[in-house]
Amino acid sequence: MLTAEQEQAVRTWAQEGASLSEIQTRLAEEFDIHLSYMDTRFLVMDINANIKDKETPAPKQPEPPARAEAPASGVVHDIDAESESGVASEMEAMPMGGAKPVEEGELTIELSRIQKPGFALCGSLVFPDGETAEWGITNDGRIALDPATEGYRPSQEYIRQFQMKLKALIESAY
After folding, report:
1. Which listed site, 18, 41, 69, 164, has its alpha carbon 20 to 30 Å from 93?
2. DSSP state of 85
3. CA gap 129, 122 in Å, rounded
């Protein structure tokens, strides 16, 4: 089908790193030979042309999303950073909902029906000391807290209780 000169041209293009579609286009432009992509592929195989892989640049690492400054009304922190898992990340502040304080010693947690962007689940909670917070599980599985009181940091025991109640809530809801 091709002359020896045309076959050599295809081999040269392939060695220079031309893709199959580039070879297909050049055949049409330079030799007025119009082939389908599959026919071009068969041609390259038939004449033993070795397609040289182009050097592909290293995959571009996605840049982390820009982090918003936490508003003065609350500090967001990742409770995973305080637990044994050691996963640390700051999350954007979530506005407080309508959680009500309860008596000392009772931790309550609620699942919100409305999900915030970037979160798989979210809701509110009241710690045993009466402090309230919004919580969220990000799409990558991190747990974030936004306490209503600026600078409030729950104790390890409160975090443990929260994680246990959250686990039970998720298991019962799903």
Report:
1. 164
2. T
3. 21
- Contact indicator for 126, 101 with CB cutoff of 8 Å: yes
Q: How confident is the model at residue 98 (pLDDT cuts 50, 70, 90)?
A: very low
Closest CA to 75 of 17, 142, 19, 147: 147
Cβ atoms 22, 13 nearer than 8 A: yes
Cα separation, 118 vs 137, in Å, equals 9
d(CA 144, CA 61): 24
Integer Cα distance of 126 and 134 in angstroms:
9
R_g (Cα) of the chain, nearest Å: 30
Hey, how many other C-beta atoms are within 10 angstroms of the C-beta on 73?
13
Tens digit of each residue's pLDDT (9 = 90 or more) over 100-124? 433 456 889 988 888 888 888 899 9
Tokens 């936490």, residue? Answer: 70
- Do the Cβ atoms of 17 and 54 come closer than 8 Å? yes
